Amino acid sequence: MQHVAEAARSPRVAISDVMRALGLAGGLLPVLMVLGLVLVSPLSGVPLLSSAVGLSIAVIAGRMLMGQQSTRLPEMLARCEMTGRKLERTVGLMLRLARFVDRITMSGRMRWLTVPPVEKVVLALVMGIGLVMPLMEFVPLSSSLLGAAVMFMALGLLVQDGLVLLLGLAIASGAALIPITAISTMAG
User: Fold this and answer.
1) Which DSSP state fits 70?
2) Are 141 and 171 in contact (CB under 8 A)?
3) Measured between alpha carbons, how far is 159 from 107 in angstroms, rounded to an integer?
4) Longest alpha-carbon distance in the chain
5) Average pLDDT over residues 47-70
6) Which in 56, 72, 85, 148 has the greatest CB count within 10 A?
């Protein structure tokens, strides 16, 4: 965060500079976390957004399963700039979020869940979640729960905390019960 705060002293800062300062210059796990966060936000109510984000999650998880661990931002997005002042305000929010993540995570806890071959199983589950997201578009809360599940699973893999990853798996299991309950209620 110190590097981002230093970048905020400039009058204009490109998004690629911020990503580089955060160490996110190409990692796919932070992208999965952000996509999950989008689904947890009120934006998940926008028609078809959950489907588009879900398919993006599936593609990214599939790329990771094939061994790709990084990507580049599209050049147009990487060159987008913001004022240093706006970035400075955002840094405060990011610091609070980083402190929260530090409080709930502990690198190395149940680490065996975050390394191959278990990591590959988790990525396959994340890919499956992304693929079923379009089917869950009209089931209330399901996309938000699935987004939270993806966010926690990606965070668990990123910081190598198996307990956080298990939280994501538990949320995904709970989300799976929603359509099952809805179908059984309609049928019975």
Assistant:
1) B
2) no
3) 6
4) 63
5) 89
6) 148
- Of 59, 60, 57, nearest in space to 133 by CA: 57
Q: What is the pLDDT of residue 30?
A: 81
Angle value at C-alpha 30, between 139 and 161, nearest 5 degrees: 90
- What confidence tens digit (pLDDT) does each residue in 89-127 have? 767 766 776 777 778 777 788 888 888 899 999 999 999
Return the exposure string of 96-126: e unless at least 16 CB atoms fall within 10 Å of the residue's CB, then b.
eeeeeeeeebeeebbeebbeeebbeebbebb
Q: 168 and 151 in contact (C-beta within 8 Å)? A: yes
What's the residue count for the chain? 188
Q: How far apart are CA 65 and CA 120, in angstroms?
A: 6
Return the percent helix, strand and coil in the chain, to nearest 5. Answer: 75, 5, 20
What does pTM read for this prediction? 0.74
Whether the Cβ atoms of residue 169 and residue 180 lie closer than 8 Å to each other: no
Give the model's confidence band at 77: pLDDT under 50 very low, under 70 low, under 90 confident, else very high: low
Domain boundaries, the chain: 2-187
- Picking from 124, 145, 134, 127, the residue whose alpha carbon sits closest to that of residue 52 is 134
| 135 vs 61, residue with greater confidence | 61
